[in-house]
Amino acid sequence: MTPLMDVRDLTKTYGARIGCADVSFRLYPGEVLGIVGESGSGKSTLLNCLAGHLPPDQGEVIFDTRAEGPRDVLAMSEPERRMLGRTDWAFVHQNPRDGLRMRVSAGGNVGERLMAVGARHYGEIREQALDWLDRVEIAGERIDDRPAAFSGGMQQRLQIARNLVTGPRLIFMDEPTGGLDVSVQARLLDLLRSLVRQMGLSAIVVTHDLAVVRLLADRLIVMKDGNVIETGLTDQVLDDPQAPYTQLLVSSVLQV
Ligand SMILES: Nc1ncnc2c1ncn2[C@@H]1O[C@H](COP(=O)(O)OP(=O)(O)OP(=O)(O)O)[C@@H](O)[C@H]1O
Fold it and tell me: Is the CB–ligand 1 distance for residue 45 below 6 Å?
């Protein structure tokens, strides 16, 4: 099977400081990969390099595009990468404010993504926006409200609807449940898990919360000081960690 994403020797430094070093992995269609590690281990750097938000110093990110098959994302032009970001990819930020347009209505937030990929029929766009609000458990009567009038959990669900409405193949998530109350987190995780399964989505999820990857991820990458120190199936890594650092992480001795 062709990997959806094939990452080879990805390295990013900030001056003398290592962001991430020599990271390689393959992500297959329909798979959810979790990236875990304590604060400063390089998770966000890696995610941002993968998603084209940050230029790495070296390495390759080969993505199996819907339109043209496998392409090196890093060798793409900026407009090509931006197009990928609107079609095959989605990015869910930790803070919904970074992923939503706060002055635009909930329906507009979802609908403008459809318009960005060519939808023009107002009635159909509104219908799809309503359908997506329903799928993320936001009442249709809130369609004309701005996200500022929503709770944190609702904003995050709206961000997810805005990201998924165009049917991406890969969704990047940066601490998707961070900053939410525990009960709200659980509901959001349930929703994310069922959407990912229903849509057969692939995902790369960065989190310091092992409960998030336990529920969402098929496979894990454990990072420390910018390096990958352990990989494997989620249950295997969490139930029988091999690296001493992972053992500490799992036993919650480390402050993550
Ligand atoms: N813009 C930057 N300039 C300089 N150093 C940076 C920058 N961004 C990250 N770093 C450094 O790169 C390393 C990895 O940071 P990164 O933010 O990727 O870790 P993280 O695992 O995502 O941490 P957190 O969970 O706290 O977000 C750290 O040593 C950090 O200080």
Answer: yes
Fold of 1-88+168-256: Rossmann fold (3.40.50)
d(CA 101, CA 97): 7
Nearest CA to ligand 1 atom 5: 14
Is the CB of 56 inside a 6 Å radius of any atom of ligand 1?
Answer: no
- Pocket lining: 37 vs ligand 1, CB cutoff 6 Å: yes
| Ligand 1 atom nearest 208 alpha carbon | 25
Q: Are 32 and 203 in contact (CB under 8 A)?
A: yes
CA-to-CA distance for 224 and 38, rounded, in angstroms? 7
Q: Tell me the per-residue pLDDT of 43-97, one tens digit each, with 9 for 90 and over.
A: 999 999 999 999 999 999 999 999 899 999 999 999 999 889 989 999 999 999 9
Outline which parts of the chain fall under CATH 3.40.50.300.
1-88+168-256
Report the candidate in 206, 225, 232, 209 with the shortest Cα–Cα distance to residue 50. Answer: 206
Asked whether 44 lines ligand 1 (CB < 6 A), one says yes
Q: Is the CB of 96 under 6 A from ligand 1?
A: no
DSSP alpha helix (H) spans, the chain:
43-50, 78-86, 96-99, 106-116, 122-135, 152-164, 182-199, 210-216, 234-239, 244-250
DSSP strands (E only) in 15-99: 17-27, 32-36, 58-65, 69-72, 89-92
Query: What pTM, to 2 d.p., does this model score?
Result: 0.93
ipTM value: 0.96
Tell the residue nearest (CA) to atom 30 of ligand 1: 40
